[in-house]
């Protein structure tokens, strides 16, 4: 069976992580909040490729969301999800910054 999610870690440190992620058809991300041990978590997601159908990012509150491609939000404060990808793949470059409290 084909993996629905493939993640490549491009950079990892205590404060900043950068990932390249491919989500395949059939995958969805259920509504959730990201937990952090301390500080504030910011995520900047750049949707490199949108799926042909489905795969819509939904967040209770974003700092900004330009065209559904450039999204900055606080995943530690606001619930977010991605609807089921019906057709195609969703490619994402994700930057996660943990700002110490």
UniProtKB/TrEMBL annotation:
**Pfam families from the UniProt entry:** 2OG-FeII_Oxy_3
- InterPro entries with a match to the protein in the record: Pro_4_hyd_alph_FE2OG_OXY
Limits of the Prolyl 4-hydroxylase alpha subunit Fe(2+) 2OG dioxygenase domain = 20-94
Q: State the source organism's domain of life.
A: Bacteria
Listed name of the protein = 2OG-Fe(II) oxygenase
* Organism listed in the record: Wenzhouxiangella sediminis
């Amino acid at each position: 069976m084909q993996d629905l999610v493939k993640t490549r870690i491009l950079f990892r440190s205590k404060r900043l992580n950068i990932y390249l992620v491919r989500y395949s058809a059939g995958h969805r991300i259920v509504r959730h909040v990201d937990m952090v041990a301390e500080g504030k978590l910011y995520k900047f997601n750049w949707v490199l490729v949108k799926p042909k159908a489905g795969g819509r990012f939904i967040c209770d509150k974003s700092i900004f969301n330009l065209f559904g491609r450039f999204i900055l939000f606080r995943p530690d404060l606001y619930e977010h999800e991605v609807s089921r990808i019906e057709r195609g793949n969703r490619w994402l470059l994700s930057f996660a910054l943990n700002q110490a409290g």
